[in-house]
Design a protein that fits this description.
768 residues, Chitobiase, domain 2, TIM Barrel, 4 domains, eight-stranded parallel beta barrel, seven-stranded mixed β-sheet, globular, binds ligand TNX
């Protein structure tokens, strides 16, 4: 039997149906494992011919990388005929067309290793793979195998916002190392935003003298920092000198990372306008804001030629520092109310025959694009630059989902995908109750891994316009590099595989297993990575027949040993070990952890289950909830779990501009004395408490009698994130209970959504 399965496996391997993988992230295109190992020793030499500066640079890096794994500094010598015991590194001549500009082939044999590539970039990635293989063994052993490897996409990026929080130079170097480690090749450096201008511009010294510093409000929440700022307050911030920038760009180049600068315009520029108010429409001085700005109204004036002269001067210095073909000009989230009132902007619109302010933004972007093109550069911007028309030569970064990217690719633009749904690493990566405060959302490691950058809607030809993807790291809630590290690691490992490895080879199980070694590498490098993948989630499975809840425990880690308690105590290695789903019959709290090698891998996650009369009862909704806030579907409102303060926690049902009208069928006439409806308010996310909740009862499901109404007493202007139960205490007996929660028909005055209906979020209707 065993022989037969070995035979079948061998057949599948030879037919290529059973892809082999090596312990490398991102997973290589093809791996064929062989018997035996190659051992690196003090005698091992690297045979590599150095004929120019690039090759010399590569050899120095390779030496460092190999040393850091094996603790041995291999001697680099010119190739001789003596290959035994050595590592032979060669640039292909003729070229190997299959592996392109960044690929490599690696053959590890018992007595020698061959690494080949067409370029030093390919060789560099090959050495990174060798490093990974060494770090997942004893540091000196390479398992025998043949590897052919090359990337799926040309743009494999990570962005970093250094405006919301300034990140010191040392951290930027580290960031580039992390990119290189993951065979990623674009560092998108977000140097300008409202809260700080971060790059020295010689012609406009005030940009950094004034624009790089803001009032120190670090002790306050980002969203509550928007009070007026007095002059001469303590200053918080920083900037990069041109010398520092040059060194960083050069360091990145050696590691095959292109640094793409982003100089925001026309909005997100209050830092620039604090320094030079004359380039705004009003000319009014406004300080560098220390926190949240919304909406972005104080923007560059599109009517003044001086604005364009200023921007061209800035871009000229920027181009002198960054050799990248692409220059990112932002272009996002410009609220054009100042343009609407500005005589010069209105005059520009008349002179240029522009029908509205969107077209004025398009004029702005096109004018800058012309300037960049004249200088041999290529414009890239956030997807808003599509609005009002754009030349197909510009490249789009699709962040408001994939839709703008799809439209752009269909219109012939190149596109870098970066949708907030999968690529926003400023969003939570685990349960918010266990995570440091984040922007919102929830993008776990598995969710990143599930991302497919090429949307199905595109034809094969259109799909060629998707040149890659990147993750964005906005730092409103990341005050320092350590925190940034926590947010990118390990999610960038998942993204690197999405971008490098072949689509068909994607395998979450195999990836999560390889992450075990990746975590060890992070430990070796001293990375402050997140262990959120080890958080244990309790999922209920409802049985409508007997109204019970079966709980299953899961994580995003590989093969975890889960321990749990049901009495509210903290689980330890002595607690019950989870082997299969279990049934809950009374209200209790399930707490669980993963323990590995005697160590608890993350804080325990608790889920409170409320067993009440409506659990697992049929619920009929008059209006459907939003598809985006579906929660767990049919029984979400009566699944025994209450939603938390995080409206993305997967428990809430969200309604946009509709009431909740839910009829619960208790199966038979039952007595109860309390109906409670859980609701959430997150004013910033346009989610408001209902004005009131009405409860009606019926025996036949047709004729309902009002039992009572509970009014909400909290103001819609209350900006605190909060939840409450609207409770009706009244004795009744009935089979059907109808709960109506009335949504706020219009967001309050002065709210960004004034005039639009609010969202309503409901979870758990408890009947007792
Ligand atoms: C939107 S994405 C922004 C940023 C914020 C980010 C927070 C984009 C082009 N603009 O200004 O920092 O959301 O997630």
């Amino acid at each position: 039997m065993k022989r037969l399965s070995i035979f079948i496996a061998a057949m599948l391997i030879s037919l290529g149906m059973f892809a082999q993988t090596a312990d490398i992230v991102p997973s290589p295109v093809s791996v064929v494992k062989k018997d035996g190992v190659f051992k690196i020793s003090d005698n091992t030499k690297v045979l590599f011919k150095i004929t120019n500066e690039t090759e010399k640079e590569f050899s120095e890096l390779a030496k460092d990388i190999l040393k850091s794994a094996a603790g041995i500094t291999p001697e680099f010598v010119a190739p001789t005929t003596q290959k035994e015991g050595n590592i032979l590194i060669q640039l292909n001549n003729p070229l190997d067309t299959k592996i392109g500009n960044e690929g490599y082939t690696l053959s590890i044999q018992n007595d020698r290793v061959f690494l080949n590539a067409n370029t030093t970039a390919g060789l560099f990635y090959g050495v990174q793979s060798i490093w990974q293989l060494l770090t997942s063994t004893d540091g000196t052993t390479l398992p025998c195998m043949d590897v052919t490897d090359y990337p799926r996409f040309g743009w494999r990026g990570l962005h970093l916002d250094v405006s919301r929080h300034f990140m010191p130079v040392e951290f930027i170097y580290k960031y580039i190392d992390y990119l290189a480690l993951h065979k990623m090749n674009v560092f998108h450096w977000h140097l300008v935003d409202d809260q700080g201008w971060r790059i020295e511009i010689k012609k406009y010294p005030k940009l950094t003298e004034v624009g790089a510093w803001r009032a120190d409000r670090e002790d306050l929440d980002w969203k509550s920092r928007n009070e007026p700022v007095k002059e001469n307050e303590p200053k918080y911030g920083g900037f990069y000198t041109q010398e520092e920038v040059k060194d960083i760009v050069e360091y990145a180049r050696k590691k095959h990372v292109t640094v793409i600068p982003e100089i925001e315009m026309p909005a997100h520029v209050m830092s620039a306008l604090a320094a030079y108010p004359e380039y705004s429409c009003t000319g009014e001085y406004k300080p560098v804001p220390p926190g949240k700005v919304w909406p972005n109204t104080h923007i560059f004036c599109a009517g003044k030629d001086e604005t364009f002269n200023f921007l061209e001067d800035v871009l000229t210095e920027v181009m002198g520092l960054f050799p990248s073909t692409y220059i990112h000009i932002g272009g996002d989230e410009a609220t054009k109310t100042e343009w609407e009132k500005c005589e010069l902007c209105q005059k520009r619109m008349t002179d240029e025959g522009l029908k509205d302010e969107h077209e004025l933004q398009a004029y702005f972007i096109k004018r800058i694009e012309k300037f960049l093109n004249k200088n041999g550069r290529h414009l890239i911007g956030w997807d808003e630059i599509l609005e009002g028309g754009l030349d197909p030569t510009a490249t789009i970064m699709s962040w408001r989902g994939s839709k703008p990217g799809i439209e752009a690719a269909q219109a012939g633009h190149d596109v870098v995908m970066s949708p907030a749904s999968h690529c926003y690493f400023d969003y939570y990566q685990g349960n918010p109750s266990l995570e440091p405060q984040a922007f919102g959302g929830n993008i776990t490691l598995k969710k990143v891994y599930s991302y497919e950058p090429v949307p199905e809607e595109l034809s094969a030809d259109e799909a060629k316009h998707i040149i890659g993807a990147q993750a964005n790291i906005w730092t409103e809630y990341m005050p320092n590099g350590r925190h940034v590290e926590y947010m990118i690691m390990p999610r960038m490992s998942a993204l690197s595989e999405v971008l490098w490895s072949p689509k068909d080879a994607k395998d979450w199980g195999d990836f999560s297993k390889r992450m075990e070694s990746q975590y060890k590498r992070f430990d070796k490098l001293g990375v402050n990575y997140a262990t959120s993948a080890f958080q244990v989630t309790a999922k209920p499975e409802l049985n409508p027949e007997n109204k019970t809840i079966k709980v299953s425990l899961s994580t995003e880690a590989w093969n975890p040993d889960i321990y749990y308690t049901t009495d509210g105590s903290e689980p330890t290695a002595q607690s019950k070990k989870y082997t299969e789903p279990f049934i809950i019959c009374k209200s209790q709290s399930v707490k669980a952890v993963v323990i590995k090698d005697g160590k608890q891998k993350s804080q325990s996650l608790g889920t409170d289950f409320f067993i009440h009369k409506a659990v697992a009862c049929k619920v009929d909704q008059k209006y459907p909830n939003s598809k985006s806030y579906e929660s767990t579907g049919e029984y979400a409102l009566v699944n025994g779990i209450k939603g938390s303060k995080d409206h993305h926690d997967g428990n809430w049902k969200g309604f946009n501009g509709k009431d909740l009208v839910a009829t619960i069928d208790l199966g038979e006439s039952q007595s109860f004395s309390k109906v409670s409806t859980g609701v959430l308010q997150n004013n910033g996310a346009w989610i408001f408490y209902p004005t009131h909740v009405t409860v009606e009862v019926s025996e036949d499901g047709e004729n309902f009698k009002k039992l009572g109404t509970v009014k909400n007493k909290v103001s819609a202007n209350d900006g605190d994130l909060q939840i409450q139960d609207l409770v009706l205490n009244k004795k009744a007996k009935a089979r059907y209970v109808r709960v109506t929660a009335a949504h706020l028909t219009s967001c309050p005055k002065n709210h960004a959504g004034a005039g639009y209906p609010g969202w309503l979020f409901v979870d758990e209707i408890i009947i007792e």
